C-alpha cells in the first residue's frame, strides 16, 4: 500500500511540476531562514553555560523606579555589607576594569598584554577556570599578585608552568600566583590576566556613593529573589540612605527618591547576555532576535499557505481519483494518511535541501554577525525537524481532510467543479498570505526610512578628521601628560588643533552623578574638558559664553550645560544662569555660564542626556581621569599625518605600547551597525516573502484559470475581447489583494509604531509606505495573474467546445 501511495504521489508531483517546485522552493527558503536565526538565538543563549556554578551566580543591577532606568554598578561598602547581613548571599566578587592592557616585562621578554581584568579576591570562586599551574587559594589576595591565562603565560614566558615567577608592570613587581585555561565555550568573561584593584578598593572602602564596580553575588540554592530584593532595599539601600542623609534634614526615604537606587535586580549569570537590563559586559538585543525569529517563522507559514492553496486548487484534478477509491471501499482515514504522506515527502525533501543551503550560507552568516557558529548542536536538528512535522500537519491535514470529504457520487458525476467550498477556502488562505506580504512591504519601507533618518540626522557636532588617541593605563598624572603633549603635537605637520574631552561620541565611557538644586536632584553625565573642546567639536552655543582660560573662575566653579540639563530641572535659559547647583562629585556650588545645543554622544536611538561641561582642573579627582588626547587633522594628507603621529607616539610618548587610536566619526558610526543590519535582514526577508508569495500566487492563478478555460472559450466565441477576458480573470485576485492590504494596514501600523517607540529620535509614521504597499501589491498581482490570463485568451476554442 505504501509503495502504491508513493507511486501516486510522484505521478502527481510530475504532473503538477510547477506547484511541486514552488512548494519545495518556499519551504526550503523558509526552513533555511528558520535554522539560521535559531542557531543565532541558541548561540546568544549559550553564554556562561560552561560555568558549573552558574545556577547560584547572579549579576546585580540597580533600578531607579521613578524613571524606570537601570544601572550595572554598585559601591564597595554596599556589596560588603550585603554579604554580611543578608543570609541568602554566600559571597560576592567586584570588578572595575575589563579589556585592560599593560606592558609587562619578565627576565627575558617585554610584551604588551591586552584583554585583562581587575577583580576582587573571590573571582576564581565564581569562575573556576581549569587550573594549570599554582593555586587559586589567595591567588588574588594582596596588592602585587597576578593570575595569567595560558595564552598570556606563553606570550610572556614561552611556557605555562610559571606560578611563582615575577612580572614587572609600571616599575612594580607582581608575582604570578596561578595560571588558568580559558573555556572554549561562549563566555563574555575571558580575561587573559586578572589583578586586584587593591588601591582603589582601599580608597573606596567607606565611599557608599562611589558606584565604581560591577558585581556578581553567589546565592544559596532556593533563594527567593523577590524576598532578596526587599532585604536589599531595607538592609542596604535604606541603611546607606540613613548614613548619607543624617543631619541633612532629609528623610532616608526622600534621600532614596532623590538619589536612588530604589530597587535591585538579580539576573542569573547565564542570562545576562540577552536578558539583563544592564550589564558591565554589554547586553544583547533579545528583542531583535525575537523579531527575526518571528519573521522567519512567518516565511515558513507563507510556504505552508502556498502548499494548502495549491493542494486545494488541484482538488478538481483528483476528485475523480478520490471518488473511484471511495467507491471501491477506501476509508477516509486511509485517504488522509495518503495525502499527509505526499505532504511529508515534499517537506522532508525541503528539509534536506535547507540543511545543505544552511551549511552553504553559514560562513557568510557568521561573518555578518561576527560569530563562529557550527552546525553541531542537536537542538537545531530537533527543532527544525519539529517544524517540518508541524508544517506537514498544518499544510497537509487541511487539504487532506478537505479532499477526503468529497462525496463519491458527486465527484464521479463531475459535480465537484460547481462547489464553492474550495473557492472560499483558497480565497481566505490567499488573503492571509497577501496580508503577511503587505506587512513585510510596509515594515521594510518604515525600517529603511528610520535607519536613513538616524544616519542623516544632525548629531550636533562634527567629528570628521578628529583623531582620538587613548593614554595607556600606566599614566600616573595624565593631565600633566596631556598638557605637555598638546603643545608638542601641534608642531607636527598636518595637525590643525588639539584638545581633550571626557564625553566623547562613540567612546562608550560614561560617568555621571547627581546634580542638586534646592529640593530637586537629577543625574547628569560628566564632561570634563579643555577650554576649547566644545568649539573644537563644532558644538553650537545656544546662550551665554564659552569657558575662558583667562578667567580664574572658569577653573574653580564655572560650567556649561546642555539643553537637556536645563530642561530636566524645568528651568528657562535665563533661570539657569541665576541658579547654582551642587554636583555629587564636589562639595561646592557650580555656576552656569553657558548653554550649548544638545549633541548626541551615546547612540542615535537614545535621547540626549543632561551633561555638565567643566575644565578638568576644576575638580581634583577629574584630573586623574584625563584619558585621551584628540587631534583635528588637516584634510590634505590624513594618512601621512596619522603615520607621523604614530611614529612620534611610539618613539617619544609610550614606547612599547600600541598606538591606540580611532577617528571619532567612524567610531560613532559603529552605533549604527545594529540598525543597518536590521535594515539588511528585513530587506532580505522582505524579498524572500515576496518571491514565495508571488510564486504561490502565480501557480494558484494558473490552476484556477485553467479551470475556467471552457468559460473563456465560450465568452470568446460570443465576441468578448482579450482585454475584457484578461480583466475578468484578474478581477477576483485584485479584489482579494485590496481586501488583504486594507486588513494589514492597522496591523502594520500598530506593530511598526511599537518598534519605533524604542527610538528617542524617530520619524513620524509616514503614510506613503501604506499607499505604496497597496499599489505595488495590486500591480504585482495584476502582472503575475495577467501573464496566465493572457495565455488563456489564446485558448483553442475547438478543443473546449467540440463536445458541447
Automatic annotation (TrEMBL):
<dbReference type="Pfam" id="PF02687">
    <property type="entry name" value="FtsX"/>
</dbReference>
<keyword id="KW-1133">Transmembrane helix</keyword>
<dbReference type="GO" id="GO:0005886">
    <property type="term" value="C:plasma membrane"/>
</dbReference>
<dbReference type="InterPro" id="IPR003838">
    <property type="entry name" value="ABC3_permease_C"/>
</dbReference>
<keyword id="KW-0812">Transmembrane</keyword>
<feature type="transmembrane region" description="Helical">
    <location>
        <begin position="681"/>
        <end position="705"/>
    </location>
</feature>
<feature type="transmembrane region" description="Helical">
    <location>
        <begin position="424"/>
        <end position="447"/>
    </location>
</feature>
<feature type="transmembrane region" description="Helical">
    <location>
        <begin position="378"/>
        <end position="403"/>
    </location>
</feature>
<dbReference type="InterPro" id="IPR025857">
    <property type="entry name" value="MacB_PCD"/>
</dbReference>
<dbReference type="InterPro" id="IPR050250">
    <property type="entry name" value="Macrolide_Exporter_MacB"/>
</dbReference>
<protein>
    <submittedName>
        <fullName>Putative ABC transport system permease protein</fullName>
    </submittedName>
</protein>
<feature type="transmembrane region" description="Helical">
    <location>
        <begin position="767"/>
        <end position="790"/>
    </location>
</feature>
<feature type="domain" description="MacB-like periplasmic core">
    <location>
        <begin position="20"/>
        <end position="231"/>
    </location>
</feature>
<feature type="transmembrane region" description="Helical">
    <location>
        <begin position="21"/>
        <end position="41"/>
    </location>
</feature>
<feature type="transmembrane region" description="Helical">
    <location>
        <begin position="289"/>
        <end position="310"/>
    </location>
</feature>
<keyword id="KW-0472">Membrane</keyword>
<dbReference type="GO" id="GO:0022857">
    <property type="term" value="F:transmembrane transporter activity"/>
</dbReference>
<feature type="domain" description="MacB-like periplasmic core">
    <location>
        <begin position="433"/>
        <end position="646"/>
    </location>
</feature>
<feature type="domain" description="ABC3 transporter permease C-terminal">
    <location>
        <begin position="294"/>
        <end position="405"/>
    </location>
</feature>
<keyword id="KW-1003">Cell membrane</keyword>
<feature type="transmembrane region" description="Helical">
    <location>
        <begin position="733"/>
        <end position="752"/>
    </location>
</feature>
<feature type="transmembrane region" description="Helical">
    <location>
        <begin position="335"/>
        <end position="358"/>
    </location>
</feature>
<dbReference type="Pfam" id="PF12704">
    <property type="entry name" value="MacB_PCD"/>
</dbReference>
<feature type="domain" description="ABC3 transporter permease C-terminal">
    <location>
        <begin position="685"/>
        <end position="796"/>
    </location>
</feature>
Amino acid at each position: 500500500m505504501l509503495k502504491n501511495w508513493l507511486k501516486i504521489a510522484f505521478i502527481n508531483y510530475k504532473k503538477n511540476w510547477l506547484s511541486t517546485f514552488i512548494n519545495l522552493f518556499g519551504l526550503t527558503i523558509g526552513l533555511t531562514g528558520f535554522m539560521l536565526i535559531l542557531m543565532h538565538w541558541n548561540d546568544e543563549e549559550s553564554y556562561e553555560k560552561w560555568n558549573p556554578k552558574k545556577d547560584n551566580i547572579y549579576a546585580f543591577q540597580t533600578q531607579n523606579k521613578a524613571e524606570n532606568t537601570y544601572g550595572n554598578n554598585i559601591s564597595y561598602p554596599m556589596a560588603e555589607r550585603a554579604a554580611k547581613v543578608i543570609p541568602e548571599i554566600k559571597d560576592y566578587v567586584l570588578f572595575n576594569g575589563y579589556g585592560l592592557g599593560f606592558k609587562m616585562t619578565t627576565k627575558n621578554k617585554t610584551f604588551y598584554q591586552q584583554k585583562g581584568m581587575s577583580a576582587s579576591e573571590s573571582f576564581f570562586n565564581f569562575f573556576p577556570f581549569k587550573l594549570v599551574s599554582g593555586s587559586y587559594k589567595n591567588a588574588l589576595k594582596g596588592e602585587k599578585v597576578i593570575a595569567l591565562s595560558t595564552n598570556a603565560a606563553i606570550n610572556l614566558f614561552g611556557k605555562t608552568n610559571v606560578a611563582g615567577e615575577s612580572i614587572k608592570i609600571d616599575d612594580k613587581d607582581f608575582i604570578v600566583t596561578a595560571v588558568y585555561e580559558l573555556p572554549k565555550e561562549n563566555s563574555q568573561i575571558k580575561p587573559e590576566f586578572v589583578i586586584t584593584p587593591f588601591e582603589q578598593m582601599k580608597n573606596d572602602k567607606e565611599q557608599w556613593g562611589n558606584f565604581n564596580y560591577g558585581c556578581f553575588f553567589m546565592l544559596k540554592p532556593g533563594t527567593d529573589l523577590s524576598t532578596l530584593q526587599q532585604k536589599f532595599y531595607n538592609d542596604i539601600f535604606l541603611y546607606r540612605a540613613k548614613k548619607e542623609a543624617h543631619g541633612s534634614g532629609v528623610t532616608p526615604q526622600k534621600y532614596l527618591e532623590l538619589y536612588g537606587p530604589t530597587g535591585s535586580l538579580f539576573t542569573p549569570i547565564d542570562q545576562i547576555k540577552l536578558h539583563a537590563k544592564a550589564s558591565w559586559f554589554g547586553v544583547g538585543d533579545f528583542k531583535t532576535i525575537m523579531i527575526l525569529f518571528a519573521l522567519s517563522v512567518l516565511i515558513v507559514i507563507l510556504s505552508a499557505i502556498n502548499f494548502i492553496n495549491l493542494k486545494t486548487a488541484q482538488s478538481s484534478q483528483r476528485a475523480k481519483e478520490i471518488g473511484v477509491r471511495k467507491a471501491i471501499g477506501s476509508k477516509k482515514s486511509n485517504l488522509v494518511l495518503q495525502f499527509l504522506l505526499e505532504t511529508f515527502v515534499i517537506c522532508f525533501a525541503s528539509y534536506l535541501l535547507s540543511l545543505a543551503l544552511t551549511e552553504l550560507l553559514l560562513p557568510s552568516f557568521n561573518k555578518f554577525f561576527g560569530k563562529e557558529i557550527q552546525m553541531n548542536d542537536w537542538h537545531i536538528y530537533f527543532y527544525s525537524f519539529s517544524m517540518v512535522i508541524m508544517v506537514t500537519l498544518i499544510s497537509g491535514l487541511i487539504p487532506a481532510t478537505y479532499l477526503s470529504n468529497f462525496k463519491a457520487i458527486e465527484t464521479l458525476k463531475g459535480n465537484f467543479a460547481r462547489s464553492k467550498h474550495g473557492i472560499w477556502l483558497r480565497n481566505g488562505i490567499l488573503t492571509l498570505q497577501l496580508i503577511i506580504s503587505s506587512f513585510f512591504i510596509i515594515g521594510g519601507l518604515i525600517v529603511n526610512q528610520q535607519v536613513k533618518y538616524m544616519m542623516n540626522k544632525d548629531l550636533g557636532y562634527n567629528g570628521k578628521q578628529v583623531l582620538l588617541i587613548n593614554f595607556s593605563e600606566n599614566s600616573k598624572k595624565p593631565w600633566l601628560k596631556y598638557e605637555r603633549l598638546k603643545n608638542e603635537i601641534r608642531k607636527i605637520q598636518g595637525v590643525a588643533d588639539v584638545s581633550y574631552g571626557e564625553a566623547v561620541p562613540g567612546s562608550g565611557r560614561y560617568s555621571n552623578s547627581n546634580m542638586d538644586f534646592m529640593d530637586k536632584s537629577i543625574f547628569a553625565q560628566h564632561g570634563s574638558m579643555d577650554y576649547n573642546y566644545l568649539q573644537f567639536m563644532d558644538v553650537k552655543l545656544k546662550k551665554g559664553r564659552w569657558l575662558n582660560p583667562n578667567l580664574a573662575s572658569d577653573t574653580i566653579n564655572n560650567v556649561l550645560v546642555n539643553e537637556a540639563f536645563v530642561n530636566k530641572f524645568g528651568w528657562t535659559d535665563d533661570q539657569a544662569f541665576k541658579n547654582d547647583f551642587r554636583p555629587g562629585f564636589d562639595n561646592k556650588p557650580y555656576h552656569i555660564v553657558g548653554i550649548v545645543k544638545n549633541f548626541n554622544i551615546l547612540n542615535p536611538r537614545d535621547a540626549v542626556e543632561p551633561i555638565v561641561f567643566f575644565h578638568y582642573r576644576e575638580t581634583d579627582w577629574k584630573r586623574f581621569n584625563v584619558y585621551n588626547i584628540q587631534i583635528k587633522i588637516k584634510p590634505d594628507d590624513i594618512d601621512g599625518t596619522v603615520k607621523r603621529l604614530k611614529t612620534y607616539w611610539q618613539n617619544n610618548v609610550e614606547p612599547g605600547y600600541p598606538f591606540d587610536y580611532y577617528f571619532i566619526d567612524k567610531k560613532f558610526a559603529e552605533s549604527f551597525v545594529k540598525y543597518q543590519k536590521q535594515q539588511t535582514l528585513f530587506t532580505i526577508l522582505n524579498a524572500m516573502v515576496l518571491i514565495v508569495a508571488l510564486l504561490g500566487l502565480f501557480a494558484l492563478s494558473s490552476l484556477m484559470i485553467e479551470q475556467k478555460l471552457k468559460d473563456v472559450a465560450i465568452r470568446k466565441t460570443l465576441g468578448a475581447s482579450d482585454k475584457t477576458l484578461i480583466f475578468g480573470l484578474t478581477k477576483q485576485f485584485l479584489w482579494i489583494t485590496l481586501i488583504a492590504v486594507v486588513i494589514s494596514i492597522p496591523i502594520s501600523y500598530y506593530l511598526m509604531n511599537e518598534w519605533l517607540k524604542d527610538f528617542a529620535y524617530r520619524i513620524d509614521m509616514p503614510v506613503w509606505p501604506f499607499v505604496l504597499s497597496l499599489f505595488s501589491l495590486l500591480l504585482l498581482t495584476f502582472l503575475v495573474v495577467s501573464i496566465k490570463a493572457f495565455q488563456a485568451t489564446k485558448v483553442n476554442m475547438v478543443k473546449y467546445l467540440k463536445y458541447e
